[in-house]
Input
Amino acid sequence: MTNVLNIAVLPGDGIGPEIMPQALAVLQAAAQHTGLDLRCESFPWGAEHFLRQGEFMPADGLTTLRDFDAILFAAAGHPAVSDERSSWEFVFQIRKQFRQYANLRPVRSYPGVATPLQGDPAFDMLIVRENSEGEYAGPGGVLHGGWDNGVAIQTTVLTQTGVERIARYAFDLARQRRRHVTNVTKSNAILHTMKFWDAIVADVARDYPDVTLDLLLVDAASMKFVQAPGVFDVIVTTNMYGDILSDLGGALAGSVGLSSSANLDPTGEFPSMFEPVHGSAPDIAGQGSANPCGLILSAALMLRELGQGEAAARIEAAVAAALAAGVHTRDLGGRASTAEMGAAVLQRLEG
Ligand code: NAI
Ligand code: MG
Output
């Protein structure tokens, strides 16, 4: 029996429509090899759609997406549209309504790709970012309006359920890796929420005696990212620290064009969404020079999440092999076009 999976494809804006065909070609080749029938349906939603139609997606857009097994998304954003609206009316709608509480961001070095670090050290870590509450939960407000006596309050919200589920998710992942979790926190200064966070993470750790747990304050962790990135395996952290550290990690890897991510509803009730860490890069859109690897690697994360770990690993190996062979787009200091980079990955997948 052929395994059929339905994928919603959102190329979005800017470089999105340039890199998506490369990712889909690699995805289909990997699927074919494993006898998987991937049915992809594309939707032209995002900021450019807003400029044309006055909405980022149709009113029933989420209902449409709900029926798919997963969503592959490039990026949304256009200079003529407010970024806040693109985020809150489109991307965040999908992440929040589909309860994608776990954000996975792998950060690794690649042989043949220069890092900004001396000696190009090897590292391979997985940042597990809490994606639904914490510092970005939303409650707060500005009192008094004017600046003279103004007061602004933004409240961090952590729930027992929210912290426990992300901690369990991180420990489960560590069991498939090097069995080490680092809890990145700030409980020396943020006494209520972060001590609560630490206590729950430590409590969950007791159920995983085969996994070691370290605690690191976020400032010290930032330093260690630069000085010894190889010490990290799985990192579990809050929404804001995960956001910041994953950009730092992406920069350490050599280019944001290589960074992939997954927004997961691990319960499987709603479809999860897979997207590169970068945005729509309007500064290089239309030039055919964008790096498609971040999206290709996000497609690999999608396959793994859909139970196709072998196909995922083949894509990851093909990307690493193409990079090691010196096929580099402009962001990596090379001259390969988007299409040439995609073709180089495809060739190694089939070879
Ligand atoms: P960006 O990630 O689009 O670009 C930052 C820099 O990295 C630019 O110089 C760009 O040329 C380069 N870059 C990004 N991806 C690349 C790739 N694949 N290959 C080669 N170079 C690449 O971030 P920026 O400029 O802050 O935002 C641009 C737009 O994207 C904004 O409208 C922003 O709101 C949106 N955005 C959307 C995201 C999403 O849809 N999840 C995430 C981040 C930004
Ligand atoms: Mg960010």
